[in-house]
Amino acid sequence: MNLDTNNHSVFLLNYHLVLVIKYRRKVINGEISNRLKEIFEYICPKYNITSGEWNHDKDHVHILFRGSPNTDISKFLNAYKSASSRLIKKEFPSIKKQLWKEYFWSRSYCLITTGGAPIDIVRKYIEDQGMK
Fold this sequence. Notes:
Layout: E1 4-5, E2 10-11, E3 13-21, H1 30-43, E4 50-56, E5 60-67, H2 73-91, H3 95-98, E6 105-113, H4 119-127
Antiparallel strand pairs: 1-2, 3-5, 3-6, 4-5
Helix pairs in contact: 1-2
Protein name: Transposase
Pfam families: Y1_Tnp (PF01797)
GO biological process, one term: DNA transposition
């Protein structure tokens, strides 16, 4: 297992993010997905984030990324969603016809940590500390 480090800590913070298009409109194709990924990768370094896997369906994207202890996930997500929404609507004007108002992304999202061990194993490990 490869761990990340900084001056004061060792860590492994993997996240699985799902972002959904407003009203579940089916507007994502390969070209739009590639542009959304480019924007994501451009913003990542500013928040100490490393992009991993990326995939999409017509109405949502799945992103695997790594953070660090000083990563402010909510600020990163707001920055990404704002910038990508603005740029995608500007670069692909046909999308505006399929969405109402100024929104591109849904306000909600799904963010899941992806630890290596099941939670029961971690819980048991913590419970067993100091027992041996």
